[in-house]
Amino acid sequence: MATGNWTRVSEFILMSFSSLPTEIQSLLFLTFLIIYLVTLMGNSLIILVTLADTTLHSPMYFFLRNLSFLEIGFNLVIVPKMLGTLLARDTTISFLGCATQMYFFFFFGVAECFLLATMAYDRYVAICSPLHYPVIMNQRTRIKLAVASWFPGFPVATVQATWLFSFPFCGTNKVNHFFCDSPPVLRLVCADTALFEIYAIVGTVLFVMTPCLLILCSYTRIAAAILRIPSAKGKHKAFSTCSSHLLVVSLFYGSLSLTYFRPKSNNSPESKKLLSLSYTVVTPMLNPIIYSLRNNEVKNALSRTIHKALTHRKSIP
Known about the structure:
The chain is mostly helical. The protein has a single domain, classed as Rhopdopsin 7-helix transmembrane proteins (Up-down Bundle), CATH 1.20.1070. Helix content is 74%, strand content 4%. It has eleven helices and five strands. Strand 1 and strand 2 (6-7) form a beta hairpin. Helix 2 packs antiparallel against helix 3, helix 2 (59-87) runs antiparallel to helix 10 (269-293) and helix 3 (95-128) runs antiparallel to helix 9 (232-260). The longest helix has 34 residues, at 95-128. The protein is globular and about 65 Å long. The model has no long low-confidence stretch (mean pLDDT 87). It is found in: Cell membrane. The chain crosses the membrane at residues 27-51, 63-83, 103-124, 145-165, 198-217, 238-256, 276-294.
């Protein structure tokens, strides 16, 4: 409905991958559906195993459980709607639905940044102060750190989503993306967004780059501590305890940087969609695989859990 030169938008159209042939979209649907199911099963399995096996009740696996729960939420926000646009060609999303999707996208994204920083701090304490580790990372401390990791997502998501969707929209209501991300929605606004864009830059520095710097500081101290270990076996053992987390951090921040910090001249909408898939679809699937394949404790716990489940099933008459 038009009011003067403004348009009151009641819904948006997600362009998603509509420019591709139908056959390619069908292939993408099958691919993303498999990845989606693997993500849900993998992260759910990590949660169940770390809860069921008492050997995995350490702080590291407490934070890993939080990460898996976060990845499930992150996936549920984006992937089901994307699958709907590919299968049923249902590209419309309501105004409220778009705002809600953006809200939870920011919430889970910021929470993941801080949670990865918390996990880096946990590895720093474990390697640099192993004797004091159980005392420093006691149950009360780990709960406080988890809450502190989740909390920043609330104000960031509330301010950014509420502010952006309070702007008037004009012209087209087509969002050139497969979900309601801030940059493509912002292009539809017909008002001065300079202040909002400044806030977005400041918010990115504070809530995305600050955790990244904390991770770098933690791993700088970890690297220095590992280099002081005299034996090669000791160095390998120390590094192996944080290698999975380091790989997860590299994947997450690497894909995020390629998506949002590239020069605009090299940042076409189609290339950004492909890059966005890396941290919204692929990374949540890889995290449980990385922690399962590169961690003997998790692999052994999985084996024990499966064995117990099969034994219990056989014992039932």
